[in-house]
Design goal:
Radius of gyration: 17 Å
Number of helices: 8
Structural class: mainly alpha
Order of helices and strands: HHHHHHHH
Shape: flat
Largest sheet: none
Number of domains: 1
Helix content: over 70%
Distance between the termini: 47 Å
Length: 140
């Protein structure tokens, strides 16, 4: 079960683009191949994910594209909100990983999931720009 925005306690959950490198490293060490579940577990271990993190968010994000296609086949109208994307965006924003929030939100938009993605992107880009300006002022 996911926590409300103000009670997010999960951290360090990678998005697919960050999960792929450890997965490829695992597969490079196992040239004979490995079952998908074994490879996923190996990559998750390399990333230091807890069992709760693996169980809650990774499957939702990994299956989001297929879920969107299946939903569109069954129902008319826009897609609903995607809790996994929203939760991961909240976690990443609280961690200060603003670039990741923008990438994740952009992916949610591209897949068609409802949400406040544009506002989240604008907020994170503005915050990131303020941080960069502040850093430049200190350096200059």
């Amino acid at each position: 079960m996911f926590l409300p925005e103000d009670e997010v306690s999960l951290d360090g959950i990678p998005t697919f683009d960050r999960f792929i490198e450890p997965l490829l490293r695992f597969l490079a060490r196992h040239l004979e191949g490995a079952p998908a579940r074994t490879a996923q577990e190996g990559a998750a271990a390399e990333l230091g994910l807890s069992e709760a993190q693996k169980a809650q968010l990774l499957p939702q994000i990994a299956l989001s594209g297929r879920a969107a296609v299946a939903f569109r086949r069954e129902y008319e109208g826009p897609l609903p909100s995607h809790t996994g994307f929203k939760q991961l965006a909240i976690v990443r924003e609280k961690q200060g990983d603003l670039d990741e929030v923008v990438r994740l939100s952009t992916r949610a938009i591209a897949e068609g999931w409802a949400g406040d993605w544009e506002a989240r992107i604008a907020r994170c880009e503005a915050r990131r720009d303020r941080q960069r300006r502040k850093g430049a002022d200190r350096d200059g």
